[in-house]
Each structure stands twice: as structure tokens, then as C-alpha cells.
Amino acid sequence: MNPPYYPVSDFGPMMKGMVIGGLGIVHVFLAMFAIGGGLLMCYFQWLAQTGRSPNARRFVDGYFKALVLISFVVGAVTGVAMWFVSIQVSPRTIGMMVEEFHWVWGIEWTFFSLEITAGYCFYRCSARLPDRDRLLLLGIYSAASWFSLFWINGILTWQLTPGDWSRTREVWSGFFNPGFLPSLLFRTVTAMTVASLAACVVINTMADLDRAARKALINKAAHFLFPMAAMPFLSAWYFGTMPEDSRRMVFGGSIVMTLFMGLATGASLLIGLYAGFALLLKRLYINGATATLLVALSFAATAGGEFVREGVRKPYTVREALYSTSVAPEEVTRLRAEGCVARDPYPLRDAANYPNDQVRLGAKVFRFHCNVCHTMDGANALRHLAGDWTPVQRRMNIAQLQRTKTFMPPFSGTPEELEALVRLIEWATAGRPREWPVSTDREDWPEGRRRIRAWLDEAGVAPGFLKPGERR
Ligand code: HEC
To answer: What does 299-364 look like in DSSP terms, one character per residue?
Structure first.
């Protein structure tokens, strides 16, 4: 089978992974707010109608407005944007996710529609409804939003820990994979935390309540911070389910991953400490500025966590089934013989700017094989990473790409394609001169070609985290 080729989009100096990652982080954070917010409002509605908190009902109405505005509008827009960007960045991955989990997506969207409908009914009618019906609507709203997390969580965790699916290709073994439960519980706790902190911001805007009344509400909202105590345990469980090479990246193997993990842990720890001492033990008042700062910290924690979750999947987008380059592992050998862009029908946008056909070929190889994680001059730029290498080093390290960094996939092209890529990097590093010699015309090329082929063969076609000859 050939890898399918799709029209390509270019995001300039921004790495494609960064574009989708940045958008994803905002979207996930808003989704967490929506889910936790639903649960929190059920709690407050219950407090109100059982006479446990005199101002709880007012809070529900105020909070719901913020929730609707932010999560319905910005959440929905970023959700659509996620699809729009991901089909540009990695159409084959999205295709696979849709194909494997067609009905699961359908179920997820059904719950999402239910969530929107219940939320809208509450928005329009809650002022006129008796308490019992208000609680019912909020209950439907929050159950539906939690279940949309439930369904999507199975698909997202499948990408990293597909479990028995790798063998059976059976939808439920992929869905209820090893990462499913710890991730679901962890996200539920995160959602409750975000909702609780956002509540402290909203309560501070209720200017017509006196400080004592606001404090009473804040102390109630802080109850949703208790589950944070389970976070260390849940994240240890989640890490335990991760493939070993991914775990290694988090604990030092990739300093970027390690630092982001540190950011997520540090930010969560700060929130946890503040919640534990100030809100729960001392029952302090928390003003709007502090509450906003805590929400910002929870955003940083979410951002770090999501970044790591997406990052440690490398070199795959679907573990052992699809590399980040949209090449399936079983296709590598053939692409090394036939070429990875030999059948790529899409022209270069700026073909006339390159000095010769070899560099043009290099640009196509770069687009196919590197561009999802690298740019030429911007973020994670190849010019910076390999521009100062010696020519031999460039050839060898790219030929043995999966060993240069185990989170890169094996190189899947011919020696000519590899040489063209090397020449593209050299040309870009030299400042893109108009004239540039072609290297495959030179009489030492047959020898160069032989060495590249030998390096490719030595590295093999298995991912780099396996030892040479080791099989899975
Ligand atoms: C799955 C994502 C991914 C793909 C695909 C990928 N890379 Fe990388 N590559 C990375 C990451 C992440 C780094 C680490 C950057 C760092 O350490 O700062 C990296 C590092 C490198 C480095 C520096 C290695 C070192 O030891 O300093 C080179 C050179 C490189 N990549 C070349 C390439 C080339 C050429 C391609 C395409 C044939 C490619 N990469 C495809 C993710 C990828």
C-alpha cells in the first residue's frame, strides 16, 4: 500500500505540531472548565435547594452565564478549529482515528448535542423553573459533558497506549486501553480543580454580596479542590501504563518534555498547597486577583501536561501503527526502495526559488518527512540543528534518524532523496545562493550513495527505541 498524499499547508515559522498543540491546550482547558463547571453547579444547586447555602442559587445563575459564554462560544469555536487544523497537519492520523472509532465519535457527538441542548434550556428557562427541574437540567448537562470526556478520552489514550488493539484491531480493546482509566480519573479531578478556581473568580465579581457571604460561597467552592489529593497517585498510575521509551522522555530523555512536566507538576503543587493551607485548612478569603492567578496556574499546569502527553507519543501519532510522518511502519522498506515523494503529486509552492532540481527534491522530502516536527528557519529549525554539522555527519545522522533521536521515525526514502535533503539544508545554511552545485553529478556520488545505503541498512527500519535486531 502507498501512503496517501494530501494537499499540504504551511504555517511559516511555526512548527505544525506547535500550532495544533497550542490550539489543543486552549481547547482542553475550556473543556475542563465546562465539565467541572457542570458538576460544580449541580453541587451548588443542591446546596441551594436543601437550604445549605443562602446565596448558592444566585451563584449558579452568575456562574452559568460565564460558563455558557466561555465554553459554548470559545470552546465550540476552538473545537471546530481543532478539526480544521488537524486535518491539515495530519490527515492520515485523523482518518485513522475516524475510521477505527467511527461510532464512538458518533456517540461522543450525541452527548455533546445533549450537553448543548440541556445547557441552552437552562440558560433560557432556569429563572422560571422550580428547583427540582433546575437540578435535573444541570444534572443532564453535567452528565452529558462528562460522558463526552469519557468517549473522547478513550480515543486519545488509544493513540499512546493502544494495548491489545495492536494485535486484535478490535474497537473496544483499543478504547478501553491501559491508559483509559487513570487518564479519565485524572482529567475529572483536573476539571473539578479548574471549575473550583474559576468559581472563586466569579464569586468575587458578585459585588452586591458582602464579604462574609462571598467567603461562605468560596469555602463551599473549595470543596471541589479536595480530589486534588489523588493527583500524585493518579499520575503515577498513568505513567505506569506508558510505554517505557515515552516514560524515559519525561524523566530526562528529552529535556523539553522533562521541563514541561516540571512546569505541570510545579504549578499543580502550588495550587494544591494553596488550596490545602489557605482555602481548606485556614478557610481564608481569596480575592479576585489571587483567584485569577490560580486559574492562570491551572492553565499552565494543563498546558504542561497536554504538551507532554502529545509529545511523548513521538515518533508515532498512533503507537506502532502510524508514525508522525504519516508513514505506517510496514511501509518504510518499500519507500526506501521507491522513494517517499516519487508519487507525491503536489507541487512546491515556491519551486522557482530553488536553484536546481536536486534542492527542489530536497524541499519535497523535507515537506513529506520532517515538516510536521521541524521548520527550515523557524521553530526547531533544521538549519540550526544540522546546519553546522559536517557533510558526513549530516548524511549519517539523517540516514540513522531513529537513532539520532529515538523520538524521530526511521528515514523512509532513497539515498538520492536523503542526499537531496542534505543539500537543501546546506543550501539554506549557506544563505540560499542562486547558484548551487548538484552533488549527484559528481564522480564520487556512487561511493556516497553506497555509504548512505549502508547506514540506512545498519539502522534498519525498526523504531530507534528498540535495540538493533530486537523485535516486538
Ligand atoms: C516526530 C517528530 C520529528 C520528525 C518527523 C523529525 N524530527 Fe528531527 N527532531 C525532532 C525533535 C523533537 C528533535 C529534538 C530537537 C532538540 O533537541 O532541540 C529533533 C532533532 C533533530 C536533529 C538534531 C539532532 C541532534 O542530535 O541534535 C536533526 C538533525 C533532525 N532532527 C533532523 C530531522 C530530519 C532531517 C527529519 C526529516 C527527515 C526529521 N528530523 C524528522 C522531531 C522530529
So the answer is: HHHHHHHHHHHHHTTTTEEETTTEETTS--GGGHHHHHHH-SSTT--PPPTTGGGSSSHHHHHHHH
Q: Does an H or E element contain 55, and which?
A: none
Q: What's the gap in Å between 408 CA and the centre of ligand 1?
A: 6
Type of residue found at 467: K
Q: Which cell numbers in the block locate residue 398?
A: 539523517
Over residues 221-227, the mean pLDDT reads: 95
317 lines ligand 1 (CB under 6 A): no
By most ligand atoms within 8 Å of CB, the mutation choice from 20, 258, 374, 419 for ligand 1 is 374
User: Taking residues 438-458, what's their average pLDDT?
Assistant: 96
Please give the Cα distance from 184 to 398 (Å, whole number): 38
Q: Identify the CATH assignment for 327-459 out of 3.30.70, 3.30.300, 1.10.760, 2.30.30.
A: 1.10.760
Cell output for 123: 440558560
| Residue pair 78/23 in contact by the 8 Å Cβ criterion | yes
**Residue 424 in contact with ligand 1 by CB distance below 6 A:** no
Distance CA 251, CA 258 (A): 6
pLDDT at 467 exceeding the cut of 80: no
Any idea of the CA torsion for 222, 226, 228, 233, to the nearest 10 degrees?
180
Residue whose cell numbers read 538549519: 383
Structure confidence at residue 8 as a pLDDT band (50, 70, 90): confident
* Residue 193 near residue 291 (C-beta atoms within 8 A): no
Cβ neighbors of 202 (< 8 A, separation 6 or more) are 59, 62, 63, 66
Residues facing 318 on adjacent strands: 322
Q: How far is the CA of 381 from the centre of ligand 1 (A)?
A: 9
Indicate the burial class of 442 (C-beta count within 10 angstroms; 0-12, 13-18, 19 or more): exposed
The residue ranges of every structural domain in the chain are: 16-322, 327-459
